[in-house]
Each structure stands twice: as C-alpha cells, then as structure tokens.
Amino acid sequence: MAAPRISVTMPCFDCGDTVAGALDSLLAQEGADFEVVAVDDGSSDDTAGILAEYARRDSRVRFLSIPHGGVIRAANAAIEAARGTYIARMDADDESLPGRLAVQAGLLDDHPEVGLVGCRVRFGGSRSRCRGYAHYVDWTNTLLTHEAISLNRFVEFPVPNPSIMFRRDCLETHGPYREGDFPEDYDLLLRWLEGGVRMLKADAELLVWNDLPDRLSRTHPRYDVDAFYRIKTEYLARWLARNNPHHPVVHILGSGRTTRKRADLLRAHGIEFAAYYDVDPNKIGHRVHGVPVRDRMDIPGPGEGFCLPYVASRGAREEIAAFLGARGCRLGRDYIPAA
Asked: Cβ–Cβ contacts within 10 Å for residue 248, how many?
C-alpha cells in the first residue's frame, strides 16, 4: 500500500465520549490523501473498542494500543508509526473543520521554506466561565506570520498543539516531544523555533479547540504556570545571548512580586538586571535585592538597552507595546515580551 501524503497522529486515553466525533471530523476531510494514526494509551473505558471499530470500517484509520504511559509517549508512538510526508496533530476531544488538512498541506506546498503550519482555532468552551482561556485563543488567532509567532513565543504558546501540521524532515532534524516537568508541546515549538524552523498559520478557522474540565492542560502539573515559565526562561536566556546587543544586561518592565518571581528565573542563566521599571509611585525609588525600581519614563531609548516586559495583567502587554512603540522602541530589536 502506498504511503499517504498526510498522517494525522492522535493520542487517545479514556476519551470514549469524544473520540468518535474527532474521527468523524477527520474522515469527512476532502481534497487530502491522509491516514489517521490513533494510539490508545491503555484506556480503561471503551476507547480501544471504538478505535478498533473505526479501523475495521475505514482503512484510513490505523489503530495501535500501548500500555498506559502518558500523552507524550502516545503522541510519539503515533508519530513513529506515521507514514506521511506531512504529519498533523489532533486531540481526541477536538474537531477538525472542513478543509483543514487540504489547506494546511497547501501552505506547506506553497512555502517550501516553512516547516510547520497552524491555523486559527475556534474556542469550543464557555466564554463566560473560561474567559482566560478564551482570551488566549483570541490572542493566538492574531499571530499568523512567522515574525509574529517568533516574536511572541515567550508570551505564551503561540500555535495550539492540536492545530499543527509539519514536515517529517523537521521531526528528523529537531526531534519529537520530550518528556520532563514542562509542557512538551511548548518545548517542541520553542526548540524548533530556536533551531530555525519557520512557521505560518492559515488565516482560517480549521479546528474547534474544546476546553473540557479534565483537559491535561488544566489538571497536570507540567502544564501549570510555573512550568511554562521554567521552560520559557531556558529558551529566552539563549535568545537574549544571541539577540541582545547589551547582553547579559536587561531592563525589566514591572516590579511586582509576581513579575520579580518570574523574571528572577533568568538570574540562574547569567542574566543581569539593570533596573525594574514601574508606574506605581509607591514603588519607584526603592531597591529590590540591590536592583533599583525606576519610573517607567526612565527606560532606555532605542539602542540604549534591551527591555523585557514581564507584566501579564489583561491589557497590560498591549499598553506597554504602545508605550514602547511611541518611544521608538522596536519589537525584537529593543524589547521582547516575556509574559
């Protein structure tokens, strides 16, 4: 049997209530030569039986079963078994919208310099109950170009993992998901960007990203906020070493306790803080562990120092970007957001 052009890899664990819908959304795709490699990760419900039935009915579905070892092992097992030139990801509780595979494969065809593509995603949850997650989805949907993805990589995960499709060559060069006390999908994206992989998104909603209460990103400690900051700090420190002309000195925008806790992770990587900058007159003029807190109006001008905005409150990142832009500072040259 000839290898399909696209392999959709789907790790599955106790997803008997949702996996049929995910598979139906894939099998309805038109204009693409594909297979679905679904790996049951030792489920205790009827997931394996559902996968086996779909594989029996449709030759495009390949079903593997492994002892329970977690989503990373299941995802990598699916990738290892994949035969396609292009490899897509899909979660068993999400839904691929019509045209997803054809559009993303077309982007890779049309842009040989690009190694990974995503798409805009539709938030599949309650916006009133999950405003933070919905806000994140809205933000990531604005990042369509390689430059936008690259320069916002240290804010949050800029390309939702279930939406990606990539070239097999990237996998062979830069490696699959890694296990550790960090979010494996964010690590893969940061590692590939650091390795020079260019990325794009289709300017179309091609995936429904469901926000279920038991989603791993809500329940597993490797996806908590501290884990995100630990892994992003490693990559940010190396990025600064290559791109900050004033290395190892940086200027931190924000001086609150949370900002300092997250920024201080950089110290272990040899990064030095010239100052914290704030708008709160009660903080300005103090010193924190020897580092002065200065008025935000005193930040260095373009070419005079490199700034790291670490303020994560709603709307603050946009306000700080406007402030820095008005002073002539350019994203990627004079500052990069880190929260």
From this structure: 16
Average pLDDT over residues 2-12: 96
pLDDT digits (tens, 9 = 90+) for 112-136: 999 999 999 999 978 878 888 899 9
- Domains of the chain: total: 2
**What is the spatial distance between Cα 115 and Cα 107, in angstroms, rounded to a whole number?**
10
Co-location of 14 and 110 in the same domain: yes
- Residue 99 token pair: 């045209």
Q: Does one domain contain both 284 and 154?
A: no
The reported pTM is: 0.94
Write the CB contacts of 264 (distance below 8 Å, at least 6 apart in sequence).
none
**Spatial distance between the Cα atoms of 327 and 322, rounded to a whole number of angstroms:** 9
Q: What are the helix (H) ranges across the chain?
A: 19-27, 47-57, 71-81, 100-110, 131-140, 146-151, 168-174, 184-194, 216-219, 225-243, 257-263, 316-326
Please enumerate in sequence order all residues whose Cβ is within 8 A of that of 56, keeping only pairs 6 or more positions apart, or say none.
Answer: none
Please check whether residue 334 lies inside any domain of the structure: no
Q: Which of 309, 312, 311, 263 has its CA nearest to residue 289?
A: 263
**Amino acid at position 275, single letter:** A
Is the Cα dihedral 130, 136, 137, 142 positive or negative?
A: positive
Range of the domain at 91: 6-223
104 has pLDDT over 60: yes
Specify the pLDDT at position 121.
Answer: 98
Q: What is the pLDDT of residues 158-194, one digit of tens each?
A: 999 999 999 999 999 999 999 999 999 999 999 999 9
For residue 139, CA distances in Å to 63, 159, 254 come to 35, 10, 21
Q: What is the CATH number of the domain that holds 274?
A: 3.40.50.720
CB 137 within 8 A of CB 121: yes
Contact (CB, 8 A) for 50 and 40: no
The answer to whether the beta carbons of residues 319 and 291 sit under 8 Å apart is no
pLDDT at 211 over 90: no
Same domain, 130 and 275: no
Domain finish residue from 223, 256, 281 = 223
